[in-house]
Amino acid sequence: MTFKPALVIVDVQEDFCPPHGSLAVQEGRDIVPALNELLSLPFAVKIATKDFHPPDHISFASNHPPPDNKPFASMYTITNPLNPEETQQTRLWPDHCVQGTKGAELVPELHVSKVHHIVEKGQDKRVEMYSAFADPFTNPNVSRSKLAQILHDEGITDVYVAGLAADYCVKFTALDARKEGFRTWVVGEATRPVDPGSMPEVHQEYQKAKISVIDKDEAVRMV
Ligand code: VGL
Ligand code: ZN
């Protein structure tokens, strides 16, 4: 059986990390040593993604009128700009990962010199884009990154996903990797969630999608 693995490190950016990130995930920075160990393995392709929003992005609570614009607490209905019949309920966030700001930078501790491609996502202000592959609309899709193209062009068979946040961008990236036909592995100890309480449900979604959660040493043995 052919085995050509890729590593996808999701959104390990200043705004998702303590102490200064606007959307800091608890212990977000603590996963960097594990990520650097993964980066030292012979993955055929190593990719880092960046959440990369314009200042007027639809997911920022600050871009909506009160009272339903509370970061973390408010939900908002996004309509597919290409099809008014398709809608998505989504969560509003503090401003984060704005293009050109310090918060959008990958954390300096990450060994970025070992990364082959940096994939930016979330640039279209009209849609949320947790997955590093595409926005959640399907009828039609609004915004796609170059991630699927890179992985298919390289003949990748297996995608290993890690990074931030476990319950948002890591989850949706892993689910889309499966949909793209790759065997998909999430390196659990190299992720951290926004809401720890949501993780049992995330693991159920993985099970249903035939995605395996492994620890770093298992990835070391496989790759
Ligand atoms: C993310 C919330 C908003 C993530 C991105 O990278 O998980 N979460 N934008
Ligand atoms: Zn975002």
TrEMBL record:
The lineage of its organism: Eukaryota, Fungi, Dikarya, Ascomycota, Pezizomycotina. GO terms for molecular function: metal ion binding; nicotinamidase activity. CDD domains: nicotinamidase. Belongs to the isochorismatase family. Keywords: Hydrolase, Metal-binding, Pyridine nucleotide biosynthesis. This is nicotinamidase. Pathway: Cofactor biosynthesis; nicotinate biosynthesis; nicotinate from nicotinamide: step 1/1. Pfam families: Isochorismatase (PF00857). GO terms for biological process: pyridine nucleotide biosynthetic process. Its EC number is 3.5.1.19.
